[in-house]
Amino acid sequence: MAVLAAACGGDSDDVSTSRNPDDGSRDVSAEGTDGADGGLGSSADGSPSAAGSDDPSGGGPGSSGGPDGKGGTDDPNDPDSPVVSEDDQILVDESILGDGGAFECERVVSLETVPLSAPPPFDVIIVADHSDSLSWSKPELINGLSSLLDNVVGHEVRFFVLTPTQYGESSAPAVNRYSGEELVTWRDPVTSQPYQNAMTRYVERCTAPTGERIACPAIGDLETTYEYEGQWQFVMPDPIAVVTADMTDAQVVEQQELISEYILALGGGASQVEQPMCTLNRYMLQPKEALPEHAVFLVISDEDDVSEPRDCVGEYNYYTMAVTGTWHEEGCDSDCDLWRFSASLSEASRFMSYQCVPVDDFGETFPDQASWHGQVLGAVEACTDTRAACTSAQQARASEECGPGNIVENCNTDCYDDARDRLCGFDTSDPNLDACTQPFDYEGESYANMIDFCARRYGAEGWVNCESVGMRTVPVSSHSGGGHVSSLVNAGDVLDMIRAFQLEADRHFGEDGYNVAAITHDESFDCELATGQSYAKTLRMVTDGPSHVFPICGSYAPAISEFDAFAHGLLQTEYLVTLGSNESIDTVALVDRKGTKRVLEASQYTYDEDTSMLKLDASVLSASKETLEVTLVDPCVPRAR
Q1: Which of 578, 628, 633 is nearest to 605 (CA)?
Q2: Handedness of CA 56, 62, 64, 69 (dihedral sign)
Q3: What pLDDT does residue 151 have?
Q4: What number of other Cβ atoms are within 10 A of residue 534's Cβ?
């Protein structure tokens, strides 16, 4: 009895399929069936069939057609003729097959299962203003966060909340080591309470000349030789929520509630000098091992960042050193080393006086807590008036003196005749000279007396009260000191601080490894500015463009959805799928952990034969655990034996 063998090129799991004539679906079975069961090589009524071709001559796909396309050949010497093992042959009785040239083997299907790679973890860094003026919008943030959590299910994500407030109670010791003047503003001028949720911790260290660490001397101590180093260290809080890929829906909801509760608990107590760019730079300047591989940043503020780089401080260094020299001690009556002659001139001077009035974040002033301050502006030739309002330059000078959280009120200048005495003098070693009444020479010039000396040297008339005092030179050993406050970043303005942050972020994450968005006020939005709020003309420049700036007066969900796109960008979209010489891809499907299969459209994936890479459209992926199932088609060729 003659037989024909229909064989498949390449390896397979001997998985066969048949099509349902009603719906075109493909049934996959692990073993072939005989004609009686309507399986492999059979029709619906159990009779033999030649699936996969509409050509009655058998020269369709999967056949080995002759030159004329009518019928196939199976020459064992032909290199294109498939060679199969005995185990792979499917023996079919010739009496059943009939004309072998009209036979075409049905397509055999193998399944290649590829586990999808887990998306890399990332951090969500929310820099949220916690001042009183922003409290009204917190419910919008909470609602938006719920959509964020929906989008990150299946990812590994940590959530952190930072604030734009830099200094708190720990900065109380940060004072000028000589004068005791505070170096930073760390407490509310209205309540005198330390700012809450500060981003820094101030630490100080004093070192002796030998390098030994010592207790820091008292402020103003110039007798002890030491070096002082103070640092504002960034305080990275613990994550307020953590989402893992294997969490249940209920567990994810718990994490959402943690975020909501934390945001609500922030309350007020923020510094009125909001410095989100300082916070972002402090974050990026952490040790590299403390930073994640990927991060998304969301800045929420109802005010622009108009701070100066000098307000974002990093270190304060101070030192004292021993100084040896001489000192001219006054009060010598005899055997003096020199005599000092002097005269005085009464001058008119102008003074500036003003009030520093505390103001809260809503702009409300507290006059009962105001304090008076004054500055000497300098001498004038004569007082032409007694009082004048401060100029804009004088107002700015007073505002700088009052410091953040205060406004200047009642700023005026007053002129006073004879307000102070201007001094003129010189020293001589001649014990017989009476410069008040006698002529003398000084630096090549001759003067009639001390009054003539002062008038000619200083260009004014009216010098009086010529006096002299004996001086004795004595050796002295003393200390001097000096200090310097260093900014966190070398920047000229807040725009430079933005560029510094972006440079560090590009260096660590790569340009596509992070994202920045902002929820704030912008002139293009319909938000109305309230007291204490402003348009973020500068702050918006830290984002990835205008499309990443969102209104603070509306729903925060659009801003939060930006992170969904970023999360999808972290998903792996390319997978190695190696095909046999005769195989091609029939279907691509995603199977979730519950066994539910999603068959992709042909437009949702591409296959590169040169690289054997299957690329999926990122929009079809999710972070949930799924398996990639690829159905491969291998056409079979009949062979006679």
Answers
A1: 628
A2: positive
A3: 63
A4: 16
Does residue 567 sit in helix, strand or coil?
Answer: helix
Which strands make up the sheet holding 549-551, listed edge to edge? 241-243, 157-162, 122-128, 295-300, 514-520, 549-551
Whole-angstrom CA distances from 617 to 482, 569, 607, 620, 634 are 63, 11, 11, 6, 25
Q: DSSP letters of 502-556?
A: HHHHHHHH-TTSEEEEEEE--TTS-PPPPTT----TTGGGGSSSGGGEEETTS-S
Query: Following CA atoms 493, 495, 501, 502 in sequence, which dihedral angle do they give, to the nearest 10 degrees?
Result: -150
Rounded alpha-carbon distances, angstroms, from residue 142 to 136, 148, 164, 197 = 12, 10, 19, 19
Nearest to 297 by CA among 32, 562, 13: 562
In this predicted model, what pLDDT tens digit does every residue of 495-535 receive, in sequence order?
999 999 999 999 999 988 898 999 899 988 988 888 778 89
Three-state SS at 632: strand
Tokens at 450, concatenated:
């001390």
Q: Quote the pLDDT of residue 21.
A: 36
Contact 40, 611 (CB under 8 A): no
pLDDT for 613 beyond 50: yes
Side chain identity, residue 572 = Q
- Alpha-carbon Rg of the chain, whole angstroms? 43
Q: What is the share, in percent, of the chain residues with pLDDT greater than 70?
A: 74
| Torsion (CA) 367, 373, 378, 381 in degrees, nearest 10 | 50
User: Rounded distance, CA 556 to CA 539, Å?
Assistant: 18
Most confidently modeled range among 153-162, 279-288, 372-381, 510-519: 279-288
Mean pLDDT of 603-615: 91
- Starting at the edge strand that comes first in sequence, how are the strands of the sheet with 90-93 ordered? 90-93, 3-8, 636-640
For residue 482, give every residue at least 6 positions away whose Cβ sits within 8 Å of its Cβ, in sequence order, or none.
Answer: 318, 319
Token pair belonging to 334 = 């005899």
Q: How far is it, in rounded angstroms, from Cα 516 to Cα 277? A: 12
pLDDT band of 446, cuts 50, 70, 90:
very high
Phi, psi of 249 (to 5 degrees): -60, -40
C-alpha triplet 323, 328, 331: angle, nearest 5°: 140
